[in-house]
Amino acid sequence: MKEWRNEIIGNCANMNSMSVGKDYSPKQIWYLDTGSITENRIEELKKMNILNAPSRAKRLVKNEDIIYSSVRPNQLHYGFIQSAPENLVVSTGFVVISCIKSKIVPKYLYYYLIQNTTTEYLHSIAEASTSTYPSLKPSDIASLEISLPPISEQKAIAGVLSSLDDKIDLLHRQNKTLEAMAETLFRQWFIEEAEDDWKEVSLKDIIELQSGFPFRSPSFTESGIYQIITIKAVQDGYLDLSNADRVKEVPDRMPSYCFLGIGDILLSLTGNVGRCCIVDSQGLLLNQRVAKIKPKSNFYKAFVYTYFRRYETKLQLIEMAKGTAQLNLSPIETSNIKIKLPPIQTLTMFNDIASPCFDRIVANKLVIRNITKLRDSILPKLMSGEVKVELE
Fold it and tell me: What's the whole-model pTM score?
């Protein structure tokens, strides 16, 4: 630790150094909004004409820049830019951090900023802001103090953490490929090659929608052994447990089906309705306004999950939902949706192909959670010098 020094981030990195101005010449840009990236995973990157871009499309970024949302830091909308497409522009909702590489390794700073203690500290600053919603100023990040080892050690620390993130990224990409394969097969067999004489049934003929239990917020506690799956946890294709509430005890009146098991299918019924994902963790309890989709036979499971994961199905559910301030989806109306049911032989063949894909996806997610826990546990120890890395 003798060679480590404390430094203010603003002395080794610049905030929002490049912006789109009147003299910006490219007509086409790639645009990234704050809601389109979470924990360095980009959901959507839009290509558009600069004249049609939203007014907040102002921040220019380059490779090895860090982008960090200035709004509600606990929502984890941040990323490290690698292999950036030409003319990448991000929202003014981001703080763009460009490192002075002679002083600090960009990936080292990135890992410092995403560790839990930093996120919690920045979120506390944001909540104390005078704006209408929790938000940061670039100076809040620039004024943070960071412990810096020599450049060679910064690279080694960043390398250890990057190797874990690379494994996580590989598994995420594998899961995306597997799900795309199942969806492509579903579309070919059950949409493009659908037969007119297939039997029309209601969804309630093949599934049961089981609504969650109304847990009381006073019973929530950080030390609880059970995590409560609310609508905020159900995302498109994955379960977000980062901010899940907990309880110590299970209420006596809670139905047994609210104990969730790995492989269960969930559907959001309120707010951003129609989000569907598979349970990939244990010790979870189902809250109200989230439904468990229980297929009435195992050979329906892959068909049912792929059906609800389709974009077209989500649009249909959004159109069915009622409410002005917040959309609400009725389990009864959802169960009454009519579909064309393929023959049992076709369903069985699809299940034989798709089920192993979804089993692999769930297995990969379990590995992702374990690697993530490992990374998060060693990250602060590496950044503080408590754990040393071997230098080549």
Answer: 0.86
